[in-house]
Design brief:
Growth Hormone, Chain: A; about 400 residues
Length: about 400
């Protein structure tokens, strides 16, 4: 099994898939307003929230099911399934005529996609143990880079061709992501244990303390996703307080730098873990995320906001692959897809709850106070990792 060839193909496939899925979704409110005729104000706010959260909640429910099927029938089939499901549901948004149809397709997208969890499980299972941390960082870099570039290109394409064609283009990109998976990626044959097949819980319980360790790590992934989702929403509101014009350009620059910093950190973080270990590296990075988010609340100038966004991306780009690598190193091969499916559920819930928490506090106490609350969540994350996680065996 040529794991390096697998990894290169999966990097390209995951970058293309995330690029396609993030092509137009940051502009859902614009699509609802201009293309579907939803009036600005309360109606637009409600339909935007519903369409944004439908996919996350569906993904949270469906991911564990797909994970179990991945351990039984193979991780590559689950990755192909997620890309086909995403391609169809994203592309079909081109045809929607009302907000209800949009929400239905967003729900179906969440229920049938989930490329990150499928690709992560495949890489963790097929990579030599000594290189799992670096390999999962490479996958995370593809996700970060695709998520950073996709909205930039999608915004420009939306201005030129309209958002309907942008959604169609996103579906085409997801279909293109299938090509390297089909032609290049190989998966080792599943080993069928003799006798009765152990459940995932039984496999995990064979290793003392593994259930608690995985619970801490999966919770940590959900919490960092909550922090990131809330911060992405609040930083735009913070810029609106500081700037009268150019908010879109400045926020786009900030998100782009954040994505690039996160991508670079995801590849290079293993040099730090080699000296400090996974637990210390992830805990320190989570504490620095708290500092960066708090800086967003006190920054008096837009330039400082952009710098703080880049730093937040840098430190988040360490926490995400480090905790994912610890999950991959701790989890037995027979349970990889199931555990990463549960992890995807936690991440999806984080992305769904983050805007609710950030927006709720901002509505009652202001944007700055909300950013400080989110920074507090990052501090809780640092404590959770430092006190609850354990260093995986090397």
């Amino acid at each position: 099994m040529n794991w390096r060839r697998n990894l290169a193909a999966l990097w390209f496939a995951e970058f293309t898939a995330i690029f396609g899925s993030s092509f137009a979704f940051p502009f859902l409110s614009i699509f609802l307003s201009k293309d579907l005729g939803v009036h600005a104000g309360r109606d637009l706010d409600l339909w935007t929230a519903a369409s944004a959260s439908a996919s996350g909640f569906a993904l949270a429910v469906a991911s564990p099911v797909w994970g179990v099927l991945g351990d039984r029938f193979g991780r590559k089939p689950m990755l192909l399934r997620s890309m086909v499901g995403g391609a169809i549901t994203v592309g079909l948004i081109f045809f929607v005529q009302n907000p209800t149809e949009l929400i239905v397709l967003r729900f179906l997208q969440g229920a049938t996609s989930g490329t990150v969890a499928a690709a992560t499980a495949l890489v963790a299972a097929e990579t030599p143990r000594s290189r799992v941390g670096w390999a999962l960082g490479v996958v995370t870099s593809a996700v970060a880079l695709g998520g950073a570039i996709g909205p930039v290109v999608g915004g420009l394409a939306g201005d030129l061709f309209g958002l309907r064609l942008v959604f169609l283009g996103g579906g085409v990109a997801l279909f293109l992501a299938i090509i390297p998976v089909v032609l290049i990626v190989r998966e080792s044959p599943l080993v069928r244990a003799s006798g009765a097949r152990l459940s995932t819980l039984a496999v995990i319980n064979q290793r003392p303390g593994l259930d608690r360790a995985l619970a801490v790590l999966i919770g940590s992934q959900g919490l960092i996703s909550t922090v990131n989702a809330a911060t992405q929403q609040l930083v735009v509101l913070r810029l609106l307080e500081l700037l009268s014009t150019g908010v879109s350009a400045v926020s786009g620059l900030g998100f782009g730098l954040s994505g690039l910093a996160s991508s670079a950190a995801a590849i290079g973080y293993t040099r730090v873990t080699a000296r400090l270990g996974y637990v210390r590296t992830a805990a320190v990075a989570a504490g620095l995320v708290a500092v960066a988010v708090a800086a967003l609340g006190v920054a008096p100038w837009a330039a400082m906001i952009v710098i703080a966004m880049a730093l937040n991306g840098l430190f988040s780009g360490v926490v995400l692959p480090a905790t994912a690598s610890m999950i991959g190193l701790e989890t037995p091969s027979a349970a990889q897809s199931t555990v990463f499916g549960l992890n995807a559920s936690s991440v999806a819930l984080g992305f769904a709850l983050g805007p609710v928490i950030g927006g709720g506090v901002a509505a009652t106490s202001g944007v700055q106070a909300s950013l400080f609350v989110v920074a507090g969540l990052a501090v809780v994350l640092a404590i959770l990792i430092a006190r609850g996680a354990r260093e995986p065996a090397r």
